[in-house]
Design goal:
The protein has about 200 residues and is mostly beta strands. The chain is built from two helices and eleven strands. The strands form two sheets. An eight-stranded antiparallel β-sheet has the order 10-9-6-7-8-5-4-11, with no helix packed on it. The two termini are about 20 Å apart.
């Protein structure tokens, strides 16, 4: 089951070997419907990327295909995790942010915010998808700490001096940290973990 998605990278391929290549394509999942019972809805470009050479239009004509998928690590070379202040943010009382360029194969499961230099942390709530928000915004420049999971265990990551005192909705700020952890997930039942 997929729960509380932010941005995850998946390798997807269709099971019809006549139409589709064995390598498939990579897609970023950005949201999930509320009951965790959904299909991958792909753009026509991603759909055709699964096809064998010259079979793209044939794949599109099918519209629905049986697929297999696995989660793969995101790679953002020379790119730190970034914090985008959502347009719905209203200084000084409400802050909504979205994390961008989350590398590795991890999930942020908790987030706190504090004034830079303070140890008075306030929690943020996952609003929807990858958006985190709070209506208790500290005054001044802001720092964040995240609980990041990579399979079974979680760890704290601190991002100091992320938002300046004069942060603005619509702007993106560098966190100064990179996440590169790879998930160590169990499965039941499992094959050898490699596509056949």
């Amino acid at each position: 089951m997929i729960d509380h998605i932010s941005y995850w990278l998946w390798q997807i391929r269709c099971k019809n070997t006549t139409l589709c290549s064995s390598r498939g394509t990579r897609v970023i999942v950005t949201d999930l419907n509320s009951n965790n019972q959904t299909d991958f809805v792909l753009s026509s470009r991603a759909f055709m990327a699964m096809a064998n050479k010259g079979m793209g239009q044939d794949v599109l004509k099918h519209g629905i295909l049986d697929v297999e998928y696995k989660r793969v690590p995101c790679e953002y070379k020379n790119q730190n995790l970034a914090v985008r202040v959502e347009e719905s943010s209203k200084k000084p009382n409400y802050l909504a942010i979205k994390l961008l360029y989350q590398g590795g194969q991890t999930e942020v499961v908790a987030m706190d915010v504090a004034k830079v230099g303070s140890s008075n942390w306030g929690f943020m709530s996952r609003n929807h998808g990858a958006v985190w928000d709070t209506d208790r915004v500290p005054a001044g420049a802001l720092q964040f700490r995240f609980v990041v999971t990579a399979g079974f265990d979680g760890k704290w990551i601190w991002a100091q001096k992320v938002l300046p005192e004069d942060w603005k909705p619509g702007m993106t700020y560098d966190s100064g940290v990179q996440i590169t952890d790879i998930a160590q997930e169990g499965c039941s039942p499992c094959d050898d973990g490699v596509w056949k």
